[in-house]
Design brief:
By secondary structure, this protein is an alpha/beta fold. 44% of the residues lie in helices and 10% in strands.
């Protein structure tokens, strides 16, 4: 299983080179005498060990394992075989199958909304029913070709269902990893979560948020996405805007400081049936919040449907957020007032989908791609597979664009040129 192998190789190389430079390495010689080749051999030992185990974090070797394998270079083949599991595992490439145009070069893991596995149960083999727990949803989601990670809702997907440790074991069994833990506060917080008017309930919401970080650590991911269905109001004069804002700022500062190893991100939404006006209703407001929180591990997760609902162009929003983009949720929608359609990626706004992929490249996005869609009348497995193919198609279309022409069009504000860029890219 190649998941994490490149990361382990790079880490091994960096350790070997830096330790040599400070004179504490197990390696002899200097850069001029071939130290780089020795560092690559040390790194290769780390990468070799990583591919002998399933998963990302579980496959990371210890320092001792790498040193032992490095010391036995001549018999490396035997060492690898002794560390391999006895059964032959199907090699599942990161980000999809080997029979598409992008193949193993696609740089992102794909995740998809696990609750969508509850849809169209008429398509499920009767022997797999009932399907009413997160474990059942995960089992179905594992059949999606090209899926690499799973985002869990907290506390919705835990509690009486299973522990984070049990969820981690289940992920390992189906060769998937956790992408992020996403907050879904219980309905008792209908008047607000981390800015609830009752101090005790506000404190409880903050503690639940911290518990999500604990779950993320156990699951082996370092990302917590906070979306509250309830942090807002419905009518003028109903809340003190500044007070609600300050409470959210202070709550996130507390969470960021308590878990500096976790990447915290806010997922904004302008409106829905639970909250007509959210405290943080746009990308611009969300950026102001991140600036005021002022923590290096605080960023944003942007949902394409939410940006469209806000009247935003997702490409512009992504460009504004830049390095503070910790997560992206892909979908599409008809952009009717207050409607979140959750349609398949690129199905309605192909030019926006293309520019979304372009901007992800421009800002060097390094997270995973998550599909937040609602396939109530569609096979959710096939829908997720279609989304994966669509993203790869748009990604490769961007790669083949004439970037000098893109720069010229933007510099001259050339509307016709912009449309022709899109037409040409999607025609290939």
């Amino acid at each position: 299983d190649e998941t994490g192998a490149g990361d382990c190789y790079r880490a091994g190389f960096a350790v070997a080179l830096l330790e040599h430079c400070r004179g504490s390495s197990v390696l002899d010689g200097d850069v001029e005498d071939g130290i780089l080749q020795k560092c690559m051999k040390f790194a290769s030992a780390a990468g070799v060990l990583a591919v002998t185990r399933k998963g990302a974090v579980p496959s990371i070797p210890s320092r001792r394992e790498v040193e032992e394998l490095f010391a036995e270079t001549e018999s490396m083949r035997n060492v690898v075989e002794n560390n391999m599991e006895s059964e032959t595992l199907e090699a599942i490439p990161r980000g999809g199958s080997r029979d598409d145009d992008v193949g193993d070069d696609f740089p992102f893991l794909f995740g998809s909304r696990i609750n969508s596995m509850k849809d169209r149960l008429d398509l499920v083999d009767p022997s797999s029913l009932p399907m009413d727990t997160p474990r059942d949803y995960l089992r179905r989601q594992a059949t999606i070709r090209g899926l690499g990670c799973v985002d869990f809702n907290y506390p919705q997907h835990f509690g009486d269902y299973w522990t984070p440790e049990e969820a981690k074991k289940a992920l390992d069994e189906v060769n998937l990893v956790a992408g992020a833990v996403c907050l879904r506060y219980p309905s008792k917080f209908a008047r607000g979560a981390m800015n609830h008017p009752d101090p005790e309930l506000r404190r409880e919401a903050i503690e639940i948020t911290k518990q999500a970080a604990e779950a993320a650590r156990i699951l082996g991911c370092n990302e917590v996405v906070v979306w509250s269905a309830y942090d807002g109001y419905d009518y003028p004069f109903q809340v003190s805007y500044q007070e609600k804002w300050d409470q959210i700022v202070q709550a996130f500062q507390e969470c960021c400081d308590a878990y500096p190893d976790i990447k915290w991100s806010l997922e904004f939404k302008p409106t829905d049936e639970n909250t007509r006006f959210f405290t943080v209703p746009s990308t611009g407001a969300a950026l102001l919040l991140v600036k005021e929180i002022d923590r290096p591990n605080m960023g944003l997760t942007l949902d394409m449907g939410h940006m469209l609902m806000s009247g935003e162009n997702p490409g512009q929003s992504l460009s504004m957020v830049g390095e503070k983009l910790f997560g992206i949720q892909l979908n599409d929608g008809y952009t009717r007032l207050a409607a979140e359609d959750g349609m398949m990626f690129g199905s309605i706004h192909p030019s926006i989908a293309l520019e979304t992929m372009y901007q992800l490249r421009q800002i060097n996005f390094s997270g995973h791609l998550y599909f937040d869609t609602f396939p109530q009348r569609t096979d959710p497995v096939k829908e997720a597979e279609y989304n994966i193919r669509q993203v790869k198609k748009f990604w490769m279309a961007v790669a083949k664009m004439d970037f000098d022409e893109v720069e010229r069009v933007a510099k001259e504000h050339d509307a016709i040129g912009a449309l022709e860029l899109v037409n040409e890219a999607l025609r290939r």
